[in-house]
Amino acid sequence: MCMNTKNKAGWEVSAIHPVIAKLNTLLADYQVFYTNLRGLHWNIRGDKFYELHGLYEEYYNEFAEKIDEVAERIVMLGGVPANSFSTYLQQTGVSEISGISDWREGGNHVVATLQYLIGSLRELFAIARQAGDHSTVSLATHGIKSFEKKLWMLSAYLED
Question: Which among 83, 86, 66, 80 has a CA at the least distance from the CA of 20?
Answer without folding.
Answer: 80
